[in-house]
């Protein structure tokens, strides 16, 4: 349990660092961000390990969640995302290429995860520890082409950085969902006020798109903008590679944000709890399940 | 050369300190690199403001032979300016990452200085004579009217006050997408390498418009990026050999004769990780921040966050010596992660005879290890102990519960006072230690 809290704290700190590195002088430092991402990944692994050690949802519910797997929709999103930001220059074309690749990676990672953990993990689907679980919601329009790999909501090691990602400062066209706050405690990893201001906006968007108004009501109070850090991280990696393209940012955000509504509608209207609450909120938990099944980590990082 | 610790060995005493005493340190004044030249006569420092200051060792006073000469400012110049990359909307810092001296071939001195993106070759020359008696212009430089010239004379060289001029002779730009972390002059004195996070380029000192890429570890899919290059160095006497270290704690030795692209290493140095000490931060603290060949070329030394390791080039599976620099920080890694100190890149250096190594720590402490006696000593670079020729007192950090007198507890260490850059004179027991914006010079006490 201690580890979980500690892991969570480290995750928030790491995200803050990633976010801050965007505004540091001299450009984004690839080395430092790589190290931070490794720490983030380790912390997430510990966090999820503890998470799955706790209470789990019923297998049935878990299976339901897994059906409309976010992963696939994410893959779908990735491709259009990459096309959106199709740049002209060489560097950018490389970016575009990489963007499309993650979808493959996502699949393969998911497959790996499933194969490795296909042992009755479904029983662990329920988890009451999701106080701040980075839960994601899918848009209803996401195609639930449940890839067979997502049957089991296992403690995927690939972190769902999506959970940490949120809507971009400006994303008018899509009902992006702000992820539930990954931070349970007060430690703010994101300092930017502007980000928080955008949260209500995106929450509103989600409200419109999601049928479940109850959930959306409660979500705003939980959401913290985690996406900017993550996106900036992706940004960093990309910027380091070739260029800093804001269109990439928005497309990435689109990708992440797209998945919320689906989960929302699947939820039983359970309210996501405020932080630090070990609530057996099935909706919340299911979101978490989704989250863990994602292979968002590396994907997110190099999504564009 | 004698040992580092007390007893019959030499004792380190304060010699000089350069830099402002001000409590308020301007960011631009923070020293970012320190390097002696090959003779030790010159000591160069680079700072975050892009300036290079070169100190010269004054001749010893004949009437006071026990006093070694001091280092005084020889030349100061602005090496790099802040730039802006318009394509990427990135500011390029002017901070000098590394300075490397070229071996001296004539009366002038040459050094390479680099920031994140551009390497420059500077010539530092002396001028102590000036020509007088030109025919076409008079003494203040004005052109003379040719019709007024009735006779010709040969200009003569007259002595003048010594003037030290630094002029940029070459600019090696636009070859690195990522931040340059190392430069190293080859033993052939004609080429040098520059390394950034993912690539290493080989340059010829005379050619600025192109370089050879000899190492490229950028993955086709950046998503698969797992390690970056953290430091690189040319072998001191084999001009075909170089090493580069990675963020994963590994070192690769490459032979340029094997292939044009040295992606496949000749030797791979890695120490197996101790599984019992695994933590969230294991990867960060294993990242190597500096790699240095010994002067002999037989060994190399690597610095990671908590330790210094000496490797025999003939043995790849583990280092021959490991020295703990500040093991007491292992339990504090989380706080050090929070305040970013865990990302500090400490350098290390050998003494001239390769019998001792030195590296920095926090609280303005620096550590020396004697490889023969296995003794180590912790010293502090502080204004308080900066009385002329005052012997430095060994410091100690208390790790247990009981704190002895004169010991400092781990919690009272000042993590803002870090010594990242140190340099050891190539021939004598003189060391230069950069403490934020101050440069301390210590010498042994000749009894």
Key descriptive features of the protein:
heterodimer, A: 304 residues, mainly alpha, 0% strand, disordered C terminus, B: 447 residues, mainly beta, Methylamine Dehydrogenase, Chain H, four-stranded antiparallel β-sheet, 32 strands, repeat (chain B), PP2A_PR55 (chain B)
Question: How would you explain this protein's 3D organization?
Answer:
- The complex is a heterodimer of chains A (304) and B (447).
- Chain A has 304 residues and is mainly alpha-helical.
- Helices cover 59% and strands 0% of the residues of chain A.
- Chain A contains 13 helices and no strands.
- In chain A, helix 1 runs antiparallel to helix 2.
- The longest helix of chain A has 27 residues, at 90-116.
- Chain A is globular, with a radius of gyration of 17 Å.
- Chain B is mainly beta.
- Chain B has one domain (12-139, 154-444): YVTN repeat-like/Quinoprotein amine dehydrogenase (Methylamine Dehydrogenase, Chain H).
- Chain B has two helices and 32 strands.
- Chain B has a four-stranded antiparallel β-sheet with strand order 1-32-31-30, with no helix packed on it. A four-stranded antiparallel β-sheet of chain B has the order 2-3-4-5, with no helix packed on it. In chain B, strands 8-9-10-11 form a four-stranded antiparallel β-sheet, with no helix packed on it.
- Chain B is globular, with a radius of gyration of 24 Å.
- Chain B starts with 11 loop residues before the first strand and ends with a strand.
- The A-B interface holds A 6-7, 10, 13, 17, 25-27, 29-32, 34-35, 38-39, 42-43, 46, 98, 101-102, 105, 237-244, 298-299, 301-302 and B 85, 87-93, 95, 116, 177-179, 181, 197-198, 218, 221-228, 230, 247, 280-281, 283-284, 287, 334, 337-338, 340, 343.
- Chain B: PP2A consists of a common heterodimeric core enzyme, composed of a 36 kDa catalytic subunit (subunit C) and a 65 kDa constant regulatory subunit (PR65 or subunit A), that associates with a variety of regulatory subunits.
- Chain B: Pfam families: WD40.
- Chain B: Keywords: Repeat, WD repeat.
- Chain B: One of its GO terms (cellular component) is protein phosphatase type 2A complex.
- Chain B: Belongs to the phosphatase 2A regulatory subunit B family.
- Chain A: Belongs to the IER family.
């Amino acid at each position: 349990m201690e580890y979980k809290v500690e892991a969570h704290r480290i995750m928030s700190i790491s995200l803050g660092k990633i976010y801050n590195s965007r505004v540091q002088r001299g450009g984004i430092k690839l080395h430092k961000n790589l190290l931070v991402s490794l720490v983030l990944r380790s912390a997430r692994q510990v966090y999820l390990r503890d998470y799955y050690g706790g209470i789990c949802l019923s297998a049935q519910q878990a299976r339901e969640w897994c059906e409309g797997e976010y992963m696939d929709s994410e893959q779908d999103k990735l491709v259009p995302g990459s096309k959106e930001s199709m740049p002209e220059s060489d560097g950018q074309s490389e970016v575009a290429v990489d963007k499309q690749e993650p979808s493959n990676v996502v699949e393969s990672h998911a497959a790996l995860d499933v194969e490795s953990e296909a042992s009755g993990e479904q029983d662990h689907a329920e988890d009451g520890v999701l106080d701040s679980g980075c839960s994601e919601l899918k848009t209803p329009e996401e195609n639930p082409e449940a890839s067979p790999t997502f049957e089991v909501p296992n403690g995927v090691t690939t972190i769902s950085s999506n959970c940490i990602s949120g809507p971009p400062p400006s994303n008018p066209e899509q009902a992006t969902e702000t992820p539930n706050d990954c931070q349970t405690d007060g430690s703010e990893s994101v300092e930017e006020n502007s980000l928080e201001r955008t949260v209500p906006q995106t929450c509103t968007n989600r409200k419109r798109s999601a049928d479940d108004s109850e959930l959306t009501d409660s979500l705003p109070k939980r959401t913290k903008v985690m996406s900017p850090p993550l996106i900036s991280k992706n940004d960093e990696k990309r910027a380091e590679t070739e260029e800093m393209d804001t269109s990439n940012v928005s497309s990435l955000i689109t990708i992440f944000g797209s998945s919320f509504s689906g989960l929302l509608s699947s939820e039983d209207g359970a309210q996501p709890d405020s932080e630090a609450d070990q609530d057996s909120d099935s909706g919340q938990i299911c979101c978490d399940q989704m989250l863990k099944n994602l292979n968002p980590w590396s994907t997110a990082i190099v999504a564009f | 050369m004698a040992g580092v610790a007390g007893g019959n060995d030499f004792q380190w005493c304060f010699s000089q300190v350069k830099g402002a005493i001000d409590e308020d340190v301007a960011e631009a004044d923070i020293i970012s690199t320190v390097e002696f030249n090959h003779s030790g006569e010159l000591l160069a420092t680079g700072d975050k403001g892009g300036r290079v200051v070169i100190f010269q060792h004054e001749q010893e006073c004949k009437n006071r032979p026990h006093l070694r000469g001091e280092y005084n400012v020889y030349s100061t110049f602005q090496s790099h300016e802040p730039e802006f990359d318009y394509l990427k909307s990135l500011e390029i810092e002017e901070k000098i990452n590394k300075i490397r001296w070229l071996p001296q071939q004539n009366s002038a001195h040459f050094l390479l200085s680099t920031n994140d993106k551009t390497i420059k070759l500077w010539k530092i020359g002396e001028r102590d004579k000036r020509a007088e008696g030109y025919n076409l212009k008079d003494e203040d430089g004005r052109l003379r009217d040719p019709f007024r010239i009735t006779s010709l004379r040969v200009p003569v060289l007259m002595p003048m006050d010594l003037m030290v001029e630094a002029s940029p002779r070459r600019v090696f730009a636009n070859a690195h997408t990522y931040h340059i972390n190392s430069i190293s002059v080859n033993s052939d004195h004609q080429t040098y390498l520059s390394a950034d996070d993912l690539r290493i380029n080989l340059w010829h000192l005379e050619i600025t418009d192109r370089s050879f890429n000899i190492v490229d570890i950028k993955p086709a899919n950046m998503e698969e990026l797992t390690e970056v290059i953290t430091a690189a160095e040319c072998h001191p006497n084999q001009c075909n050999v170089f090493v580069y270290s990675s963020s994963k704690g590994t070192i690769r030795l490459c032979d340029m004769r094997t292939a044009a692209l040295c992606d496949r290493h000749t030797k791979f140095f890695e120490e197996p990780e101790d599984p019992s000490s695994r933590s969230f931060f294991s990867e960060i603290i294993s990242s190597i921040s500096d790699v240095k060949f010994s002067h002999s070329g037989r060994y190399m030394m690597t610095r990671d966050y908590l330790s210094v390791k000496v490797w025999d080039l003939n043995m790849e599976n583990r280092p021959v010596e490991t020295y703990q620099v500040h093991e007491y920080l292992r339990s504090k890694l989380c706080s050090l992660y929070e305040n970013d100190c865990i990302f500090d890149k400490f350098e290390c250096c050998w003494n001239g005879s390769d019998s001792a190594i030195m590296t920095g720590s926090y609280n303005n402490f620096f550590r020396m290890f004697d490889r023969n006696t296995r003794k180590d000593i912790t010293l502090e670079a502080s204004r308080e102990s900066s009385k002329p020729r005052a012997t430095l007192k060994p410091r100690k950090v208390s790790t247990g519960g009981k704190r002895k007198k004169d010991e400092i507890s781990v919690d009272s260490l000042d993590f803002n006072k870090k010594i990242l850059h140190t340099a050891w004179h190539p021939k004598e027991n003189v060391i230069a230690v950069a403490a934020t914006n101050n440069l301390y010079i210590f010498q042994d006490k000749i009894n």
